[in-house]
Design a protein that fits this description.
The complex is a heterodimer of chains A (107) and B (119). Chain A contains no helices and 11 strands. In chain A, a hairpin with a 6-residue loop joins β4 and β5. Chain A starts with a strand and ends with a strand. Chain B has 119 residues and is an all-beta fold. In chain B, the strands form 2 sheets. In chain B, strands 2, 4, 5, 6, 9, 10 and 11 form a 7-stranded mixed sheet that branches. A 4-stranded antiparallel sheet of chain B has the order 1-3-8-7, with no helix packed on it. Chain B is globular. Classes of the chains: A mainly beta (107), B mainly beta (119). The interface between A and B is medium-sized, with 22 and 21 residues.
């Protein structure tokens, strides 16, 4: 199985900050990587697919990038509604695997 | 409506079978990638498996011996059966629907169903 190592596991930031979350794959997954946001008690919502494609309806302050086996989700100018948990998912090979999650909290 | 709606029994005893169903009212179950994902309380996400538009299935090896997906096109439903459950199967279960159209891809999640396994 491909292991997805996500960091940090938690992050404190303020409204208006820029934050980055990283997922590293244990082997190459091309750009077959999605990012999701999950608010408490809600289903996850996909933000980014194919490493860098912004999901329709998602604000442009969210962006994704890739470099080899390292993938980054960047949120510029944090808004109050962005404080949530974020997950990555590789779908390059079965079984699909998620990162452990990053909880983004208000400082 | 594009959001899947899901339902199924929420409280089971050990050794019983979880049966969950998803539908898209006003849409079709055919022609999409369907997945099931679960999340134990307070924990991360686990991929259970996928059915592609050709009806081929791929399951997580950790669950393969106990899980089956099925499609009922007459009722427009996509279902999960997970047999011989234990307390470790307690989780919120989500169905998801994926497709791409005109070079854009879309992903929709059901509202989630909490399944609790307890004697």
């Amino acid at each position: 199985d491909i292991q997805m190592t996500q960091s940090p596991s938690s992050l404190s930031a303020s409204v208006g900050d820029r934050v980055t979350i990283t997922c590293r794959a244990s082997q190459g997954v091309r750009n077959d990587l999605n990012w999701y946001q999950q608010r408490p008690g809600k289903a996850p919502k996909r933000l980014i697919y194919a490493a860098s494609s912004l999901q329709s309806g998602v604000p442009s302050r969210f962006s994704g990038s890739a470099s080899g086996t390292e993938f980054t989700l960047t949120i510029t100018s944090l808004q109050p509604e962005d404080f949530a948990t974020y997950f990555c998912l590789q779908y390059n090979s079965y079984p699909y695997t998620f990162g452990q999650g990053t909880k983004l909290e208000i400082k | 409506q594009v959001q899947p709606q899901q339902w199924g029994a929420g409280l089971l005893k050990p050794s019983e079978t979880v049966s969950l169903t998803c539908t898209v009212y006003g849409g079709s179950v055919s022609g999409y990638y369907w997945n099931w994902v679960r999340q134990p309380p307070g924990k991360g996400l686990e991929w259970i498996g996928e059915m592609n538009p050709g009806r081929s299935t791929s399951y997580n090896p950790s669950l393969r011996s106990r899980v089956t997906f099925s499609v009922d096109t007459s009722n427009n439903q996509f279902s999960l059966n997970l047999r011989s459950v234990t307390a470790a199967d307690t989780a919120v279960y989500y169905c998801t629907r994926d497709h791409c159209n005109d070079n854009k891809c879309y992903n929709y999640w059901g509202q989630g169903t909490l399944v609790t396994v307890s004697s």
